[in-house]
Design brief:
The chain is of the alpha/beta class. Helix content is about 35%, strand content about 15%.
Length: about 220
């Protein structure tokens, strides 16, 4: 299938692109960063999804909105408005089969930077709006909401023993997800799944379910 993924320059986006390439799909990536992926079947465009000129990519069958920033002045603009811009251009057309949004656990818990949490909450709401409009094409629209993921963006926590212990104390499974695991979820929800739509999946190692009972 023809797959378009934003934010493939690193982290989760790069892992998702690699998973689809391993599955034999044709993948186009969009990122402001260059790509380290060198594989037949992969095309990379450097573009700003909020302000830049978006490339012409016809007949997208799977759209994965992964690009985003955290704790910047552009959180709401890029994470939400940029995602809307990409989806309206590539997602709502008669070839589309699945649209996926990479949101965040903070979309439901609110426990992160204010603008970031607000932007991801908006992404989940927009995903449901897209599900309503994509249904006429027989397409599904869903989102994944990861908690902590072992990426370069989180290095300052991962490499700090004190901060890492605090984070682990908040999770039931005492770990964070690997980017490859999120990529497997993305593959399942967009390629295998045909009936689930308008749903957000929380992948946080039980952080939101944790509580400290005092008696």
């Amino acid at each position: 299938m023809k797959v378009l993924i934003t934010g493939t320059g690193r982290g989760i986006g790069r892992a998702i692109a690699a998973r689809f390439l391993d599955g034999g799909h044709s993948v186009t990536g969009i990122d402001i960063l260059p790509s380290s992926i060198e594989c037949e079947g992969y095309t990379h465009f450097r573009a700003d999804i909020l302000k830049g000129e978006l490339p012409e990519v016809e007949g997208v069958e799977i759209l994965i909105n992964n690009a985003g920033v955290q704790n910047t002045e552009s959180d709401i603009d890029l994470n939400l408005k940029g995602t809307i811009r990409v989806t309206e251009k590539y997602g709502l057309q008669d070839k589309i089969k699945s649209i996926l949004f990479i949101a965040s656990a903070s979309a439901s818990t609110g426990s992160e930077f204010p603008e970031y949490a607000a932007s991801k909450g908006g992404v989940v709401s927009y995903m449901k709006n897209v599900a309503l409009r994509a249904a006429k094409y027989g397409a599904v629209s869903n989102s994944l909401s990861p908690g902590g993921v072992l990426t370069d963006l989180n290095d300052h926590i991962i490499r700090d023993p004190a901060l890492w212990q605090q984070v682990m104390d908040e999770t039931l499974l005492k770990k964070w997800a690997e980017p490859d695991e999120i990529a497997e979820w993305a593959y399942f929800v967009t390629v295998i799944n045909r009936s689930m739509t308008a749903q957000d999946i929380l992948i946080d190692n039980g952080e939101a379910a944790n509580f400290n009972f005092i008696w």
